[in-house]
Amino acid sequence: MVLLWLLFAVSKVSCKFEFTNIKCTSLDEKFAGVEYCYLKSVNRSYKYLSLKVNLFKTPITKIKINAALYKRFNGYRPFMYNITVDFLKNPSSNAAMNYLFGFFRNFSNINHTCPYDHDIIVDKLDINAANLQVTKVLPVPEGDYLVETHWIAYDIDRAIVKVYCSVS
Fold this sequence. Notes:
Elements: H1 2-11, E1 17-26, E2 32-41, E3 47-55, E4 63-72, E5 76-86, H2 95-104, E6 120-126, H3 127-137, E7 143-153, E8 156-167
Antiparallel strand pairs: 1-8, 2-3, 3-6, 4-5, 4-7, 7-8
């Protein structure tokens, strides 16, 4: 009976994803400005991420995104991915970038290929949606991670968004 209970308990082990910090930086204040960029903790189990970037020179017809994944080993070290994708031409051409956009696709207004003539918003990306992506879609090893994205418009680095998270 104890053996059956242990097997049942081991099968119920699951990972937990948690946002730990977010930092948004506009490198060209004449092109884009960060209106807000924060984590909000409603209670112990519900935390969400929100950000809004105001675009001042619209429409934008050429955007590239560079995404790099870092894992914490005595400081953050490169871990597996550092990719750049032309976002407006073919955003789903890279499987790793498609996985990354799966985190916030349903919570943002950047899921189209037309030229951007509006502000960029990610509204209330909650831990439950991110946890599904990290545990069910593609399991991620335990550890502390940093996802750093550089938003490049017209071949000039315009903004950096750093999302810190942990998987336990």
